[in-house]
Amino acid sequence: MDFEALHSANFKLLDDTVGDWTSMLTKLQVLKKDAHDGLHKKALTADWAGDNAVISREFVGKTAGEFGDAVTQATSIRDIMRDTRDELKAQQRLLKDAIERGRGKNLTVTVNGGGFTVSENPDKKAPNGQSDVDALRDELQGILNTATEIDNSAATALKALVDLTDHGFSDAVYKDRDSAVAAVKEAEKLAAIAGKKTEDLTTADFDALNAGLKKYAGDPIFAEHFATTLGPKKTLDFWAGLSQPYEHPELNHDRHKQFGELQKNLSLTLAAATQADTPEMSRWKYEMVNLGDQPVGKNSVTQGFQVMSNLMRWGNYDDQFLKDYGTKLIDAEKKYTHNGQHVPMMWQHMGIDPNLNHTGTDSGSDPMTGFLAALSNSPDAATDFFNSDFVTKDEDHDFKEEDGKKEKRALTNFDYLFEERDWPQEMDDKGKNSTEGRNNLAMALEAATTGHPAGQMPTEETPPHSKEQAELMQRIVASVSDDPERLTKHSYMSDSIGQITSEYLPDINRAMSDDSRGNTDKLFPIAGTPADLDHSDVTRLLVTLGQDPKANAAVEVGQAAYLGGLMDYHLNPNTPEDQRYPQSPQDTIEEISRRSAEIGGSLAVGRQEAIIGPAAKEAKDFADSVAQQKNAWSGAIGTGIGVGVSFVATPVGGAVASGVAGTVSSMVLEHIFQQSETDVLKDAGKDSADLWQDSKKKNVDMAQIAAQEAAKTHGLPYANQVADWVKYGNANGFNDASSSARHMADDLETEIQPG
625 near 679, Cβ under 8 Å? Predict the structure, then answer.
């Protein structure tokens, strides 16, 4: 910035701009409130149907969210500009004050071009002569340098903020110019450290990187600037080099326990960076994908996919980046395994390879493990990946037997990973075979089928199931039914599959009704796309899940919550006539109770097998798991979405339950939790008959509570009859479960002794 520009600056235009942004903020805040309280809330309770239940509702939700992001971005822009204006005004005051002090010392400041000169008055010398001239000159130049830095850095910060998104608005928050500028400077400093040769890294460098990435990982400007300054190639070189213990034995010895933390902080930073739409970041993503199947170094056997996948275990990566990355990773897998017909030897852990993963769960050699962890945090990308073809029916691949004869068919990524892949053997830090790969697969499937990150409960923001999600659910159910050992031999996958199942309970209840032409669609209403499931497949899935305590609890507690919401829905006199199940209240309650009991009975068969069969699990484990579900469900009860957003839980449709439904479900669940806590204290040694009888009693209790509370709340005249209707339906349901298990899943049982 030249001398005259600062000295004569008129800040009115900047004042007006700050004022305009402030006025705009006021208007945007009104629009944000209107969008949230009007548009968004109405969208959540609107009677969406078909594709609208997924596409339009989600679009409205995202549009409403954009107003919030607009307020956030406008606030950051206004605050940075206001702070910049105030700082430039301060520098102008300092400049004029310095000139005035110079006059008092007989010094004159003359403007020449964009610069200035300081000289003594011809007729009167400065007290200290040339030293006064030099001091004023340096002071003025320092002020100009500061003003220039303020001006340039503000421009950089504003450009970086606006460039973060091609469309829409960024949710980045910066309260002043300093915070935005600090993010840019810190990114450059840490990128320079990470870009060093591995052997030159010191413990101080490591600590600076770890602390800086931890502090700034969620800062969009920092993340984008760090990633693009370092570049994709140096990112891979950094982590591959750092993971070579012989490159820097002292660093490995002194900071070994912190490697996992640095891995997490770097992963979170890169994930945030991929969300930016700057040209530089687009180029970074393109180059990183292309580096995936290339060796990291001249003499290295480690490939880019192996390194980068270990930096994808945390954070929410950009969906399109994950899709491109996954496509290229699958191409590499096909190449190294001859379309999946051999073990992927390139991903085997060799003794000379670095330990790329520092979480202790596995060495990190198999890139599919870290990539699946990334998918578990990115539902849309996960759905797309699993539904994509691994090989088409025209490509060379082993024959698949279908309908009693061998014929080629397209194989999806789900088919390959869940059914066919020979997973490379890896060890955890305790020397045991690692389970991380398949466990991450199950978690990625949870995200792909439910529409929310794995390990979380759905919220009212989660859209109902799409066609692609429902089709993937159909594949999972059919696959487990075809070979239950796909779960029972890898029981650690069952908790995720159990959560998936709990969020498709409306679809499962429909399947068990064996009613393709009646009114089951009204008895078990579904928003979005229903999963078309086979009764026998569902029975086999439930018996399989019933053998795992966590999976059993997820489905059992989910069905209890669903039962409460369903009873309220059908007993609510305000439910529109065209949405009602067209049978008597008694028939309605009996049928709901029957289907719920069949689900409970099928789980009970699985529990019997787990406790009495070869696995010999403890009954206490099952009671403990139900009790542990309490915290997970506390936030979902009363929202109607705990069993999946596809359940229409209000008379006017949508996914938000009424307060009554929340009350009914809460009472049902509280009874289950109390019962489970009591069971934990009892002697766990039960025989098959006791287990079956206990399950029958628990199911009839929860159905009676649901029916009685719903009838009482709505003031129905038959409130004193509903418990008997439930009892009849429950007895039939358990008989159905016993019969179905005997005829559809007898190969899964060691012993069944229904009482």
Answer: no
Cβ atoms within 10 Å, residue 25: 18
Query: Token digits for 284?
Result: 């970074």
Q: Specify the pLDDT at position 527.
A: 82
Structure tokens that stand for 364 in this block: 């990190």
**DSSP one-letter code for 37:** I
Cα–Cα distances in angstroms (integers) from residue 626 to residues 548, 557, 623, 677, in the given order = 12, 7, 5, 9
Q: Which residues of 80-102 are buried (b: 16+ CB within 10 A; e: fewer)?
A: bbbbbbebbeebbebbeebbeeb
0.85 cut: is pTM over it?
no
Q: What is the mean pLDDT of the chain?
A: 82
What span, in angstroms and rounded, lies between the C-alpha atoms of 87 and 83? 6
Q: Each residue of 685-741: pLDDT tens digit?
A: 456 667 788 888 889 998 999 999 989 988 999 999 999 999 999 999 999 998 888
Residue 661: both structure tokens together: 């439904």
Q: Are strands 115-120 and 400-402 parallel, antiparallel or unpaired?
A: unpaired
pLDDT in tens, 470-490: 999 999 999 999 999 999 999
**Tokens representing 692?**
């079956």
Half-sphere exposure of 174 (CA within 13 A, CB side): 33
d(CA 332, CA 305): 9
Q: Note whether 591 and 731 are within 8 A (CB).
A: no
Residue appearing with tokens 């929310």: 452
Closest to 68 measured CA to CA, from 30, 38, 21: 30
Classify residue 243 by its DSSP letter: T
**Enclosing H/E stretch for 120:** strand 115-120
The DSSP result for 659-678, as a single string, is HHHHHHHHHHHHHHHHHHHH
Rounded Cα distance between 549 and 610, Å, is: 9
Residue located via tokens 């059993």? 552
**pLDDT, position 35:** 55
Three-state SS letters, 433-501: ECCHHHHHHHHHHHHHHHCCCCCCCCCCCCCCCCHHHHHHHHHHHHHHHHCCHHHHCCHHHHHHHHHHH
